[in-house]
Design brief:
single chain, about 375 residues, alpha+beta, 4-stranded antiparallel β-sheet, 11 helices, about 55% helix
């Protein structure tokens, strides 16, 4: 019963966090070094700007361009206090240009161009990013740093604190670890991908017989069932992530995100009204191909640095697998230990799956028909 309560709590936490934000909270920072100057921009989701400084002046739940523009001075001050740049240990002064809006698949983002002037030609750049940390500790900034033909990326915020960069001679190991971290962070923050995987894992310790779920008799068949699902999902999204990363095949973001939501609905409803019971690995593979394009959208925002494209792709994909494996290792012992419980078979599995399908339906409407 303790394991069952833990599993139900985990499911509630995932669904609860999903109801607030079905995607990770990310900012996007671009910085291009030229001599003593840095030309850059920062994008923050309008929903995050509202949380940070309060943009919705009339509290009607609808943030207009006029409200956002009127809040531009507060946003500039907020960014200036939490985004710090220094070259060779000496601070750089930030100045901002006019606020604009950029639309992404998950909603509108405030786009704030800035210029940093440093006291000497920049060789070593330090970046401190503390936006949203007191409001949403899971928030991260995805940095793309350019200096001539050299492109570096990094994940800002969180425990990383202050990050230091050699702008002309980046470390390949640094590149690998940054993309590895980005992959891990994306799978942990991408609740939609996790709920799809969870929808496939929940029935993996059961066997459908005569219209009823029965517990698998031992660990071996349960382990093999889970292994097949995870392997199929991994193989599929690795294929399309690679193809998209090298611009062989690309799909529109709205289509990709909409189909990902639809895949969650199908996988979850299959637990409520089972049609495919012994071939869940095929579902994992088929829809894993679409999830790979979703992973690729984040990689596109970061970019693949010249001279380390393959290394960065491998690291990012490995990060996704590490993050995914951590979730599987957390969920697998729980569902195996409670597989015989009637409450799991008759309540947790169908009701939890129905809740996942309902949430994914909301996402589908937002992604397919939203602005």
């Amino acid at each position: 019963m303790k394991a069952l309560a833990t599993l139900m709590g985990l499911l509630c936490v995932m669904l609860g966090s999903s109801a607030q934000a079905h995607i990770a909270s990310n900012g996007f920072v671009v910085a291009e070094v030229s001599g003593e100057d840095i030309e850059g921009s920062i994008e923050l989701a309008v929903r995050d700007v509202e949380l940070a400084i309060g943009v919705d002046r009339n509290n009607d739940g609808d943030i207009t361009w006029g409200e956002l523009r009127a809040s531009a001075p507060q946003l500039r001050q907020y960014v200036a206090e939490r985004l710090r740049l220094s070259a060779q240990g000496h601070g750089c002064s930030l100045s901002f240009q006019a606020l604009q809006v950029n639309d992404r698949v998950d909603g509108s983002y405030s786009w704030l161009p800035w210029t940093a002037r440093c006291s000497a030609p920049i060789r070593q750049l330090s970046v401190s990013y503390a936006l949203m940390q007191d409001i949403d500790p899971s928030h991260r900034g995805l940095l793309t740093l350019k200096a001539g033909s050299v492109v570096q990326t990094a994940v800002l915020g969180g425990p990383a604190g202050l990050l230091n960069f050699d702008v002309t001679n980046p470390s390949r190991w640094r590149t690998f670890t940054e993309y590895l971290q980005a992959g891990i962070w994306h799978i942990w923050g991408g609740i939609d991908h996790l709920l799809f995987l969870l929808s496939l894992l929940l029935p993996a310790v059961l066997l459908r017989q005569h219209g009823h779920w029965r517990a698998l008799p031992s660990a071996r068949p349960a382990f093999l069932s889970i292994l097949k699902v995870v392997t199929a999902f991994t193989l599929a999204h690795s294929i399309t992530l690679s193809l998209a990363a090298f611009d062989v095949v690309r799909l529109p973001s709205r289509l990709t995100e909409s189909v990902i939501a639809a895949s969650i609905i199908i996988a979850a409803l299959n637990n409520v009204l089972p049609i495919i019971t012994e071939a869940r690995a095929r579902i994992a593979f088929a829809f894993g191909l679409l999830h790979g394009f979703g992973f690729a959208s984040v990689l596109a925002d970061m970019g693949l640095p010249n001279g380390a494209r393959l290394l960065s792709l491998v690291a990012f994909n490995l990060g996704i697998e590490c993050g995914q494996l951590a979730v599987v290792l957390l969920v697998m012992p729980l569902i195996y230990s409670v597989r015989r419980a009637a409450l799991y078979q008759r309540a947790v599995l169908p009701v939890g799956s129905a809740a996942i399908a309902l949430l994914a339906t909301v996402w589908l409407m937002q992604r397919a028909f939203g602005p």
